[in-house]
């Protein structure tokens, strides 16, 4: 049995295309895996606080030196990390905002990206060699974008700071099984967008 965490990052609700993708994913997955358990984490419509100086002071204290008092700055981060670790499948729905990701999703990632919790330096000292601490996890990134051509070897690949960043940062945490599904051409509407929807919906149904 899988524990599936659905993460929605769009600041839109009913009109959000990335939310529609996660909804379709859940419907399809439940039909094929009726015993799996689902949880939801909202990072688009609910505020995720950004990290601050108190957070940093707490986060970089070594595990064997931690106390209740010196860890007060990462209390919410601890809750998010505990939730994240409890699941083994992640479904992240996010739009592309200004060629990157929504600010709420960035804050969420910053809360998760904790040394000695989700990653570490291999030698125990800053060495440029990062080791992810999450094992046997799988992630699906369901993105929506206004334009097209952001894929590998495509015209706008160099402008894609959305899915490339997400794959990289979650990979640092140890998640190396990541599948990406991108709905393009939202800005243009019409038949070109309808075709994009048909194509991506079909791909999701095949998962």
Main beta sheet: strand number and arrangement? 5 strands, parallel
Kindly provide the radius of gyration, computed on alpha-carbon positions and rounded to a whole number of angstroms: 18 Å
Principal-axes geometry comes out as globular
Distance between the termini: 16 Å
- Count of helical segments? 6
H and E string: EHEHHEHEEEHEH
The poorly predicted ranges are none
Helix content: 25-40%
Average per-residue pLDDT, rounded, comes to: 95
Specify the structural class: alpha/beta
Instruction: Estimate the strand proportion.
Output: 15-25%
Trace the largest sheet across and list its strands: 2-1-3-6-7
What's the number of extended β-strand segments?
Answer: 7
How would you explain this protein's 3D organization?
This protein has 207 residues and is of the alpha/beta class. Helix content is 34%, strand content 19%. The chain is built from 6 helices and 7 strands, in the order E-H-E-H-H-E-H-E-E-E-H-E-H. The protein has helices at residues 17-32, 53-59, 75-86, 103-112, 163-172, 190-205, and strands at 3-8, 37-42, 89-95, 119-121, 130-132, 138-144, 177-183. The strands form 2 sheets. A 5-stranded parallel β-sheet has the order 2-1-3-6-7, with helices on both faces. A two-stranded antiparallel ribbon has the order 4-5. The radius of gyration is 18 Å and the shape is globular. The model has no long low-confidence stretch (mean pLDDT 95).
